[in-house]
Backbone:
């Protein structure tokens, strides 16, 4: 029998207390508390639309039981950036035409950030294909997405390098 | 609500073993690793064990250690952990190759090694390389601990020697010694995120021009992942000539009994076993000469 318990969840730097059933998925919990930027596609791990970061690493929220999240920080696409202060990956997706209907985009960007965090900040196309192999897009044909990821990785490296120069001065 | 179940989240292994000690069947208390298999299955079937016991968060069960001539992975080690381990290409190259073609990033970040073994799927991609590397699994319960060679673990389609009160806690294999190499190939319908139609892994050790160890493992061509023992015997103790490699490949084809399903026909799978065993044996032996 499912039980319920109050959990403390850290979503995009806001701590919330949420009453959660043991059989609830993180996708269900997040959308229930209003984080509808996390998209529901297949609910079986195939499409990646529901991806969020847990302590900086992407997981499918539809396969994650909320009670197993523990103290890990949850980051959704809104935690990376918004229209006023976009994240470099969001800017590159917009400028390169990598979003059409946009349904896959939150998951694509979360998976990209996770690759940059955990695998490589100098990805080539093979790295990108491997990192995004769990994200489906029905619109773009992927080419513009790969271009945007390559570009944003470069922008982020250049910004980091400029920051280092600044601190040397 | 897709399925009704309670969920236990133990802090350490001892607490987990205490919680599962009363389980008489997997319908009572089932272990939960990353959930990438179990959550999908519960949703499809609309039912679950009465209670799930989450083990993915137990820190002692996660990590890869190389010591005393063995590689040991905790049960909760993820597929991404395998890919990110700097020494994996040397100490388990077939396993490294398999982790690289496994699912998509989010599933790899969550899916555990124990979950891949314990789901019992004949298409589980980590199992052929682990069999080829000569791996054993450790099963633990409050009654004690035992080590089972992986090729004695499965007893049939989704059945194994694991008792309901046991957790799989570790997987280990000898660090490949001498002149040896291993390979894995996954034949799927796409390059990314595909379920395996045929998976083949081989391990060869050579000394003095002859094969001193030969292991050939086949996935998705029988009720469980299997060793092709007769094909291995063709090469063992012999110099691997083109004729013998050809013979081993056709013997391997004869040893498997694949079914027809939505991904491929049995006849196609059988033919591909021959092609892939020959190709991987050639590549492995070439890399050793
Ligand atoms: C989109 C998608 C793509 C996939 N692609 C692949 C693929 O390419 N290759 C592949 O092989 N698989 C694939 N899978 C299947 C799945 O991801 C793997 O089998 C994975 O390794 C399961 O691990 P898990 O930790 O998520 O297991 P879970 O789902 O948590 O558990 C699976 C089974 O193992 C049992 N179990 C877990 N841990 C233990 C333990 N410590 N002791 C005893 N029993 C235990 C559970 O009770 C359950 O029966 C895919 C799944 C999805 C959703
Ligand atoms: S909704 Fe989670 S992967 Fe499709
Ligand atoms: S932009 Fe429409 S699904 Fe990717």
Residues:
């Amino acid at each position: 029998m499912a039980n319920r318990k109050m959990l403390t969840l850290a979503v995009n730097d806001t701590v919330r207390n949420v009453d959660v059933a043991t059989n609830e998925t993180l996708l269900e919990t997040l959308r229930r508390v209003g984080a509808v930027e996390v998209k529901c596609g297949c609910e079986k791990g195939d499409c990646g639309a529901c991806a969020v970061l847990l302590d900086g690493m992407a997981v499918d929220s539809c396969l994650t039981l909320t009670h197993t999240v523990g103290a890990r920080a949850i980051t959704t696409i809104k935690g990376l950036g918004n229209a006023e202060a976009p994240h470099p990956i969001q800017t590159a997706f917009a400028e390169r035409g990598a979003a059409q209907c946009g349904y896959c985009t939150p998951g694509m960007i979360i998976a990209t950030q996770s690759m940059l965090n955990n695998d490589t900040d100098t990805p080539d196309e093979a790295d990108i294909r491997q990192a995004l192999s769990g994200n489906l897009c029905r619109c773009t044909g992927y080419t513009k997405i790969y271009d945007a990821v390559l570009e944003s990785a470069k922008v982020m490296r250049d910004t980091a390098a400029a920051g280092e120069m600044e601190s040397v001065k | 609500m897709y399925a009704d179940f309670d969920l236990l989240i133990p802090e350490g292994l001892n607490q987990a073993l205490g919680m599962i000690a009363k389980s008489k069947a997997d319908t009572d208390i089932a272990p939960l690793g990353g959930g990438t298999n179990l959550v999908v299955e519960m949703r499809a079937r609309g039912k679950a064990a009465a209670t799930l016991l989450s083990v993915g968060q137990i820190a002692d069960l996660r990590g890869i250690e190389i010591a005393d001539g063995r590689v040991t992975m905790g049960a909760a080690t993820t597929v991404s952990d395998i890919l990110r381990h700097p020494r994996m290409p040397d100490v388990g190259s077939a396993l490294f190759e398999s982790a690289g073609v496994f699912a998509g990033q989010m599933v790899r970040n969550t899916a555990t090694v124990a979950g891949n073994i314990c789901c019992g799927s004949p298409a589980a991609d980590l199992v052929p390389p682990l069999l080829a590397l000569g791996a054993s699994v450790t099963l633990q319960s409050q009654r004690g601990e035992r080590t089972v060679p992986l090729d004695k673990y499965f007893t049939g389609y989704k059945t194994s020697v694991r008792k309901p009160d046991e957790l799989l806690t570790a997987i280990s294999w000898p660090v490949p010694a001498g002149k040896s190499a291993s390979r894995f190939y996954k034949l799927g319908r796409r390059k990314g995120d595909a379920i395996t139609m045929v998976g083949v892994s081989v391990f060869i050790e050579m000394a003095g021009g002859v094969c001193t160890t030969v292991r050939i493992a086949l996935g998705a061509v029988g009720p469980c992942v299997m060793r092709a023992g007769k094909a291995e015997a063709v090469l063992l103790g012999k110099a691997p000539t083109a004729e013998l490699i050809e013979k081993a490949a056709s013997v391997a084809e004869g040893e498997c009994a694949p079914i027809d399903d939505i991904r491929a026909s049995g006849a196609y799978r059988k033919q591909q076993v021959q092609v892939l065993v020959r190709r991987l044996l050639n590549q492995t032996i070439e890399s050793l000469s």
